[in-house]
Amino acid sequence: MGRHHRGSFRLEHYAEPRGRGGGLEQPEEQRSALIEHLESNGVPESSQNTLADKIEAGEPLESEIKSAIPIRETSTTQNGFTVTRKDYSDGSFMESSVEIGETAPPGAVEPQAIKGCSSTGGSGYRQMSNCLVYVNAPTYSANFRATWVYQQNGTGVISKAWDSSLQVYLGTYSNKTFSITRKTSSGSTPAQVQLKWKYTAVGGVAQGDSAIYLNVFANDAWTTTN
């Protein structure tokens, strides 16, 4: 597989769920799948096995430590997505993407003529429909679709979220939940969708809960992780 250069976002990174442990039974197969995942996401070859060793030992990667400062951070628009990527000194990374949406023709009520994410507007609102939200990290790839509304009255509203997908690397997941935890923003608190799971590394080393969030205000949507 050719090297995926940092900052070059590709739709083929979107994962279809392959079950706990990524559908791979043997630890060596899971390690190989992780190395391939790291390679395709531009992680330097010199860091790939070191990251795998840390994951197997249950040690947190820098991308999982809230106080860690990335050595590189970029925000770009690529292939119809707003893509934010952070790279860390140990080779780990965090990449999040929110689909921007194709603008529907004037007067369109439902974006039936547009497949995928679309943007429609009316008096006092703009609706983002069927838009893909994606987060990619060393130990997982997760995505879902959502529809939300930017309102000129100062609130953001998430009307629905569906089709969640999770792929983990070098481990298994359990207790997966997916829901709109806050439908409407209020003050400094955004409307929010949560996809949450418990990750356990190969060998039974528990690493606790992981989660990705879509946050929506009156004029912005972005992702966060935990």
Describe this structure in words.
The chain has one domain (11-225). It is 12% helix and 47% strand. The protein contains two helices and twelve strands, in the order ααββββββββββββ. Strands 1, 2, 3, 4, 5, 6, 7 and 8 form an eight-stranded mixed beta sheet that branches. A four-stranded antiparallel beta sheet has the order 9-10-11-12. Strand 2 (81-87) and strand 3 form a beta hairpin. Residues 1-49, 63-88, 93-112 are annotated as: Disordered.
N-to-C series of helices and strands: HHEEEEEEEEEEEE
Q: What is the general shape? A: elongated
Number of beta-strand segments: 12
Quaternary structure state of the chains depicted: single chain
Overall pLDDT, averaged?
87
Largest sheet: 8 strands, mixed
| Unreliable stretches covering 5 or more consecutive residues | 1-9, 15-23
* Helicity, as a percent range: 10-25%
Q: What is the total number of structural domains?
A: 1
Taking Cα atoms only, what radius of gyration do you get, to the nearest Å? 18 Å
Offer a few descriptive terms.
226 residues; mainly beta; eight-stranded mixed β-sheet; four-stranded antiparallel β-sheet; 2 helices; 47% strand; elongated
Break the fold down into its secondary structure elements and pairings.
Layout: H1 27-40, H2 45-57, E1 72-78, E2 81-87, E3 93-99, E4 102-103, E5 118-122, E6 125-137, E7 140-151, E8 156-168, E9 171-182, E10 191-201, E11 205-216, E12 221-225
Parallel strand pairs: 4-5
Antiparallel strand pairs: 1-2, 2-3, 3-6, 5-6, 6-7, 7-8, 9-10, 10-11, 11-12
Give a quick summary of the entry.
The protein has two helices and twelve strands. It has helices at about 25-40, 45-55, and strands spanning about 70-80, 80-85, 95-100, 100-105, 120, 125-135, 140-150, 155-170, 170-180, 190-200, 205-215, 220-225.
